[in-house]
Specification:
Strand content: 5-15%
Oligomer: single chain
Largest sheet: 7 strands, mixed
CATH superfamily of the largest domain: Type I PLP-dependent aspartate aminotransferase-like (Major domain)
Number of strands: 12
CATH class of the largest domain: Alpha Beta
Distance between the termini: 52 Å
Structural class: alpha/beta
CATH architecture of the largest domain: 3-Layer(aba) Sandwich
Radius of gyration: 22 Å
Helix content: 25-40%
């Protein structure tokens, strides 16, 4: 963190001023876009030292890039972590984190309330390609998470605020379970963002993001990130995590990440081994655009949240709507957790509602909405809408869809920053056709 930015400064200040600051050579306040694949070494010794991790430096943009590094610093500061590793997408951040922690045949426990892409990744590709078995458990039942842990379990995975249903997990309860089992708790904080929730303050060990969403905020830059909380004692559980604790395991002779980079061990290992071998690096232009978006994150999130409360309240009273799943409403079973974990008790701008008319009514609503754009993204300045059962969660069985909160009549909305009354009017006219 820069000397001029103190840890106790407000989130709004950090959103603007965190990161490496202005360019010391040119004085430019906007971060430079280093569109370079590789970097010149001073001499042979410098090259050898950088390759051996004995000296920090840039080798190849698959592993490190100055623009991406600036974003990583900003992300770590906003989340309250010690370091970060940026990836090409949110799903890539899951793969990166898991690849450092897990061996073939290992297992993990995850919530059933997940973004559809994450659920598919965990259910299918991770098992088929890497032999990683996922046990899926209702996030409202921490005791069932605990019951699924065995000697091959390497991590717990939850979403702080789930996509699409808006379920809020009791982060502290899961942190205690993970700690007692000697494994890290990974929290996907994409929907809440650190403006609403900072999982490290409640015991999380790693935080993952799709930076494509609220961080970028304008639907124009793909990306993901893994943030290292710096608190997990890797050496205490050395036998479980050989990449982190075994000398030379990542191919760097004489190096033990947990000892030699104790300040941010996971972030260093994620770059030096994960990005090196898997190659899912974020692109400099996307990192630049994301940093610009992050400067206005507090302003946008405030508007997203305030709009969402108004729209959810309207929908909860509409005769065509069977139910609304939004933790920001007092009637929600997650309202108390929202008060505990989320700034002002807000529940972001994402939620679902279930139409009394079922599947066909949901399709008609999506077709007739005008201001709500029909596309598969969230966190945009524009209000967005999609029918998960026929799109994002279509590959699930009916039972799995219901468990994920994506039944046949469910519509997901990502409320934007437009005038709330205009959005309500649009929904009202579209519901007349449902």
């Amino acid at each position: 963190m820069k000397d001029s930015i103190m840890p106790k400064q407000g989130f709004e200040t950090l959103a603007v001023h965190s990161g490496p600051g202005h360019d010391p050579v040119t004085g430019a306040t906007s971060p430079a876009i280093h569109q370079s694949s590789s970097y010149v070494f001073r001499d042979s010794q410098h090259a050898a030292d950088v390759f051996a991790l004995k000296e920090p430096g840039y080798i190849y943009s698959r592993v490190t890039n100055p623009t991406v590094a600036a974003l990583e610093q900003k992300l770590a500061e906003l989340e309250g972590g010690v370091g970060a590793t940026c990836t090409a997408s949110g799903l890539a951040s899951n793969l990166l984190a898991f690849s450092v922690l897990m061996d073939a045949g290992d297992e993990f426990v995850a919530t059933t309330k997940l973004y559809g892409g994450t659920a598919g990744q965990f259910r299918d590709t991770f098992q088929r390609s890497y032999g990683w078995k996922c046990h899926s458990v209702d996030p409202t039942r921490p005791e069932e998470f605990k019951a699924k842990i065995n000697e091959r379990t390497k991590l717990l995975f939850i979403e702080s605020l789930s996509n699409p249903e808006g379920v809020i997990a009791d982060i502290e309860a899961y942190a205690r379970i993970a700690e007692s089992a000697g494994i890290p708790l990974i929290v996907d904080n994409t929907v809440a963002t650190p403006y609403l929730c900072r999982p490290f303050e409640f015991g999380a060990d790693l935080v993952v993001h799709s930076t494509t969403k609220y961080f970028s905020g304008h639907g124009q830059a793909m990306g993901g990130a893994v943030v290292d909380g710096g608190s997990f004692d890797w050496m205490k559980h050395a036998s479980k995590f050989p990449v982190m604790t075994t000398e030379g395991n990542g191919g760097y002779r004489g190096t033990t990440f947990a000892k030699d980079f104790a300040g941010m061990p996971f972030a260093i290992a994620s770059h030096a081994v994960g990005l090196r071998d898997l190659g899912m690096n974020q692109q400099p232009m996307n990192a630049y655009l994301t940093m610009l978006g992050m400067e206005t994150l507090p302003l946008r999130m405030k508007q997203h949240c305030e709009n969402a409360v108004k729209i959810a309240a309207f929908l909860s009273q509409h005769k065509a709507v069977k139910s609304v799943s939004f933790a920001g409403l007092p009637a929600s079973p997650y309202y108390g957790l929202a008060q505990k974990y989320m700034r002002n008790g807000w529940a972001s701008g994402l939620f679902t509602f279930d139409l009394a008319g079922g599947y066909d009514a949901a399709l008609k609503l999506v077709k007739n909405a005008k201001l709500f754009t029909h596309l598969a993204n969230i966190g945009d300045t524009r209000s967005l809408m999609i029918h998960p059962a026929s799109t994002t969660h279509a590959q699930m069985t009916d039972v799995q869809k219901t468990a994920a909160g994506c039944g046949p009549g469910v519509v997901r909305v990502s409320v934007g920053i437009e005038t709330a009354e205009d959005l309500i009017e649009d929904l009202n006219q579209a519901l007349a056709h449902a």
